[in-house]
Amino acid sequence: MLGEFLKSRRAGLRPEDVGLRDYGGRRRVPGLRREELAQLAGVSVAYYIRLEQGHADNVSDEILDAIARALRLDPAERDHLHRLAHPRRDRPPEEPVVLRPPLRHLLDAITHAPAYIVGHRTEVVAWNRLTAEVFVDLAAVPPAERTWSHQIHLNLDYRARLGANWPVVARRNAAYLRFRAGEDPGDRRLAALVAELRERSPGFAGLWDEHRVGGLDHGEARIEHPAEGPLVLPFETLHLPGDPQISRLMLYAAEPGSASEAALRRLAATSTRLSSAELAAG
């Protein structure tokens, strides 16, 4: 993955982007040549070629930072480069997901905004009623496909709810999966998810091959609800470091006094969807 990432970022730069003079002539590949990148980073061409071939044994953080600067990487991409060059070797054994009762109680107490708990592979571990009402009725989804990655790339009804914002959400999801693959390259379940999406989704393979990386800390959801129309819902992420198999709690809240807030209140009052706790109770 290291070589593919370096090539993708090198292909996205032109000589003039990094202060080099382009003497014209046809380039066999788009973007900077290896020789130009090595010059910018202050390393030998042979050394850089070895990195693109995936040979990163004993490469120093200083050299990686120099290459990151030469490639104009943002902080998330720079960290991703370091993780690819120095992958973790001590992956802990897989454990079953156990949701602590206080987390379940917190989720159930949120009644006027969508909220859910998600794992490291975008799997939805638990959700409240408004998550099912606003986004996807997860109780009707096969358990193996209760991931946001499945819903974004394979669920046409959810894609319709995302409307014109679907390309943004789809690219953000692919970037997050790349981020996670760099954090835990030995995660076979994550690799299987990516392989499934590449096979089943016409657009996912192209997004994956862009090699974008990014976390998911805050943002804004835009939904075309079939009953309530457009909803604008800013979201925040609460990371849960004390639970190894759980990633974060996602909270959405409409602007006070907005049409979206009024719509959420109406949906909360009339919802017949099931939360994860109600589904588990049978």
Automatic annotation (TrEMBL):
Database matches in SMART domains: HTH_XRE
InterPro entries the record matches: Cro/C1-type_HTH, Lambda_DNA-bd_dom_sf, MLTR_LBD
UniProt xrefs under SUPFAM superfamilies: lambda repressor-like DNA-binding domains
HTH cro/C1-type domain location: 31-78
CDD domains: HTH_XRE
Pfam families on file: HTH_31, MLTR_LBD
Record-given protein name: Helix-turn-helix transcriptional regulator
Naturally occurring in which organism (per UniProt): Actinomadura parmotrematis
